[in-house]
Specification:
The protein is an alpha/beta fold. It contains 13 helices and four strands. A four-stranded mixed beta sheet has the order 2-1-3-4, with helices on both faces. The longest helix is centred in the middle third of the chain and has 29 residues. The radius of gyration is 24 Å and the shape is globular. The relative contact order is 0.17. Keywords: Membrane, Transmembrane, Transmembrane helix. This is Mitochondrial K+-H+ exchange-related-domain-containing protein. InterPro entries: Mit_KHE1.
C-alpha cells in the first residue's frame, strides 16, 4: 500500500497548502518471467482459457472477506438505482439515487480519505505488548546462549508528496493531528447512528418504498466505523515509524506543468464568480480563488492516468476540490490558515 498526498489550496503564496491524501495498493511491476508466463498463457486454446477463468472465479470470490462481498453487492445495487432506464413507483429509485449522491458530496473529504485506507492491504502492525514480549524472549535466549530466530524486516508504507509544495515533516504532523481528532469524532457519530436505527421502525409501514432512513443510518454507521478503524491504523503507522515520506518528482511535474489546450476547461465549466446578493460584494473574487486553488480538474485527470487510480479515488479528489472551493467562497479559510501556521517553521519552496 502507498499513500499519495495531494495539495488542494493555500492561504497565500509561499505557505503550506491544505492537502488531502489517497491510499491505493502499490502496483507490482511485471518481471520478465511473469511477462513470458503471460505470453504462454495467451497461446493456449480459447476453450481451455475460458474454462480456467470460470473455475477460478469461485475461488477468487471466496478469498474476499464477507464485508467486502457485502459492500460490492451494495455498491452494485446503488449504481443500479441510478440507471436512467430504471422505472419505479413515484420514480423513487432515481430520486433516492440523486438525493444520496448529494448527501455523499456533503460528507467531509477527510472521511472519504480515511475510508480509503484499507488495513487489509497494508503491512501488519506489531502490537506494543507483543513487541516487548519478543524483545524479552530474545534477551533471555541471548543470555542463555541459545540461537536467536531472525526477524523479518517490517514493511513500510510510502507517503508520496510533491516536494515543491509539501514537506514530509509537515505532512506527518498534519496526519497525526487529523487522526487524533478524527478517532473520537467517528466513534461518537457511529454510536449515534446505531442508536438512531430503532427510531426508523415506523417507516416500515410505508408501502413500496423500503425503509430508506434505516439503510442510510446503517451505511453511515459502517462509514464511521471504517474511518475510525483506518484512523487508528494510520496513527499506529506513524507512531511506529512505518509511514515514510517519499518525495515524488512525478507529482511535482503533474502539478506544475501548465494545462495543454485540450486540458483547458470550457468557459461554461470554469469557476465563475458569484453574483453579489442584496448589494453585498462577493467575499472572494474569481482571480483570488484561482490564486488560492492548487488542484485543478486537469490535474485530477493526470493523476488518475499516471497513478492508475480507480474511479472512486478520482471522485474523492473532485469532492475534496469542490468542498475546498465552497469553503473559500464562504470565507471559511480556517483550514488554509491552520496549514500555513503549521508549516511556518519548515523550509519550503513556494
Amino acid at each position: 500500500m502507498r499513500i499519495i498526498a495531494i495539495p488542494l489550496a493555500r492561504a497565500r503564496a509561499g505557505v503550506t497548502p491544505v492537502s488531502t491524501f489517497l491510499a491505493q495498493k502499490t502496483p507490482i511491476k511485471p518481471s520478465f518471467t511473469s511477462h513470458k508466463l503471460a505470453e504462454a498463457e495467451k497461446t493456449k486454446s480459447k476453450a481451455s482459457s475460458s474454462s480456467i477463468k470460470d473455475a477460478a472465479k469461485p475461488s477468487e470470490e471466496a478469498k474476499e472477506p464477507l464485508s467486502k462481498r457485502i459492500m460490492s453487492k451494495a455498491s452494485a445495487f446503488w449504481v443500479d438505482l441510478g440507471r436512467e432506464d430504471q422505472k419505479s413507483t413515484f420514480d423513487w429509485k432515481r430520486r433516492t439515487y440523486t438525493l444520496g449522491e448529494k448527501l455523499m458530496d456533503q460528507i467531509e473529504y477527510e472521511e472519504w480519505a480515511l475510508k480509503g485506507v484499507d488495513p487489509s492491504i497494508g503491512p501488519t502492525l506489531t502490537h506494543p505488548k507483543s513487541a516487548q514480549k519478543d524483545n524479552a524472549t530474545e534477551s533471555s535466549a541471548e543470555s542463555s546462549g541459545q540461537p536467536i530466530a531472525s526477524r523479518s524486516t517490517p514493511k513500510n508504507v510510502s507517503l508520496l508528496f510533491p516536494p515543491s509544495l509539501l514537506s514530509g515533516n509537515t505532512l506527518l504532523s498534519s496526519l497525526t493531528k487529523m487522526t487524533a481528532s478524527r478517532q473520537p469524532h467517528h466513534r461518537q457519530r457511529m454510536i449515534w447512528c446505531i442508536l438512531g436505527m430503532p427510531l426508523t421502525i415506523p417507516f416500515i409501514v410505508i408501502p413500496v418504498i423500503p425503509n430508506l432512513p434505516f439503510f442510510y443510518l446503517v451505511w453511515r454507521a459502517w462509514s464511521h466505523w471504517r474511518a475510525f478503524q483506518s484512523s487508528k491504523y494510520l496513527s499506529d503507522l506513524i507512531q511506529q515509524g512505518r509511514l515514510i515520506p517519499t518525495p515524488s518528482e512525478d507529482l511535482d511535474q503533474i502539478l506544475s506543468k501548465p494545462p495543454s489546450p485540450e486540458e483547458r476547461p470550457p468557459a461554461s465549466t470554469a469557476i465563475t464568480e458569484e453574483k453579489p446578493q442584496d448589494g453585498q460584494q462577493p467575499q472572494v473574487s474569481k482571480i483570488e480563488l484561482d490564486s488560492l486553488m492548487i488542484l485543478q480538474p486537469f490535474h485530477i485527470k493526470r493523476l488518475s492516468e499516471s497513478f492508475k487510480m480507480d474511479r472512486q479515488l478520482s471522485v474523492d479528489l473532485h469532492r475534496a476540490r469542490q468542498q475546498t472551493i465552497k469553503a473559500i467562497k464562504s470565507g471559511r479559510l480556517g483550514k488554509l490558515e491552520a496549514a500555513a501556521k503549521d508549516g511556518a517553521g519548515h523550509d519550503k519552496k513556494a
